[in-house]
Write a structure and sequence with these properties.
transmembrane; transmembrane helix
Length: 105
C-alpha cells in the first residue's frame, strides 16, 4: 500500500516539474521576444520570434534528461509533444498579451 502512494506522489511531482518548466520557459521566451522585437505591428509580424520559442522548446529536453526526472525509456513522443505544446501555448498567449497592451521592457 505504501509503495503505491510513494509512486503516485513521485509521478505527480514529476509531472508538475515538467509542466512548470515548460510554462516558465514559454513565458520567458515571450519576454525575450518582446525585448528583441518590440511591440506593435512590427513585433507581431516578425517571423524570427518563432526561432526563440523553438530554442526554448529544444533546450528543455537536455535539462529534463540531465535532471533525472525521466529515464531514457520513459520519455516518449507523448512527452515531447506535451512540452512543445505547453511552451508554445504559454509563449503565444503571453506574447499576444504583451503586444496588445504595448508593454515595454
Amino acid at each position: 500500500m505504501s509503495t503505491e502512494s510513494i509512486s503516485d506522489r513521485y509521478e505527480h511531482i514529476r509531472s508538475v516539474s515538467v509542466t512548470a518548466l515548460s510554462a516558465l520557459l514559454g513565458v520567458a521566451a515571450a519576454f525575450v521576444c518582446l525585448s528583441i522585437y518590440g511591440t506593435g505591428e512590427v513585433g507581431a509580424q516578425n517571423q524570427e520570434a518563432l526561432l526563440i520559442v523553438l530554442g526554448a522548446i529544444v533546450i528543455q529536453f537536455p535539462i529534463i534528461k540531465l535532471s533525472g526526472i525521466y529515464n531514457d525509456d520513459e520519455f516518449g513522443v507523448k512527452h515531447y509533444l506535451f512540452i512543445a505544446f505547453m511552451t508554445f501555448s504559454l509563449w503565444f498567449v503571453t506574447w499576444g498579451i504583451l503586444l496588445t497592451t504595448g508593454a515595454t521592457i
